[in-house]
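Lab manual, section 2.4: Encoding a predicted structure.

Procedure: take the sequence of the chain (334 residues), apply the prediction step described in section 2.3, and record the output as structure tokens. A sample record is shown.
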Amino acid sequence: MLVEQPHSHTLISGSADKTIKVWDLNNGFCNGVLDKHKGSVISLTPIPRHCFSPSNGFCFCSAGSDGKIYVWMYTPSQIENVKAVELKENEKLNCLLVVSPYVVTGSGGSLMFGYHLYDSMFRILQSNHKDAVRCLVTLPNALFASGSIDGSIGIWDAQNLVQLLNLNATEVYADHGIYLYSINVLLTFENFLVAAVYNSFHIYELPKFNQLCAAENAHSCAITTIAYCSATLYPDTTFLITASEDAEIKVWHFSHSRKKGDTMLLQLIDQPALQGHSGAIHTVAQIFLDRVIASCSSDKFVILWKDGDYQREFRNNLAAVHVADRETNMATNG
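Recorded output:
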């Protein structure tokens, strides 16, 4: 898992080798190795600056299979562990999210916990989930969401840690040990919430939480990660990227009209699934500019992908703008 701090050109990575590494994105060098955890690093999450962060750095949390949460403070001169919290869960930790002033956790059980960042006191959150919580995400308007393998999505008041809504609740959610409605990933962008529901994904409109559209059976296996890529050339278009245990990456064209209120979801016809990995894909992300994608997999490879046609069009348009600006300047100064 990765936490990127774009303004500091720093990337934080955590691994099953029990270490956290700090990377300089300018040169690719590793600037530090943190080895506090005695088990696999399961999750990383940034801490909002208004909680407690240095003026010239940032803070983040890490959680491991050793049952510990560590709070780290990064500055250009040092990386310091400022707090350690003992987890109270009896089940394996799956995810965590900073909801100031708490760190909220989801685990292999239906119980969710909130650990106070300052005094380390904890609260048990009264959840409507029936089974393990797989993912957490921050929402606008002081809300956050939780996703469970029982197929339900919980919407929470971030200030009081109270569940307000329970979406997609089903009575039967497993078939011979396969969780066909499991919410594996939650993602927010603009005014939308995307939920990976086993091998499908659904899109909800915020703040009403009404389902706008869905891509059923998008992959042959469970979706493991979702990202989005906003395109400069097409301001009303977003390209959603999904990756799966089937080792494939798919790009989806999501466009919407704010005036008409209509929404459309379709797979790009002229771009087949991206195939290059030989194992389940863990992470995909947009990097650099416009539709350049990075993916990493259990096959231990990181692959960079780009859309050649799009990049060519982008460069041509950019060159045309520069030529027009130069001609305008020449006419003005001439």
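Check your result against the sample. Residues 266-270 have pLDDT under 50 and may be disordered.
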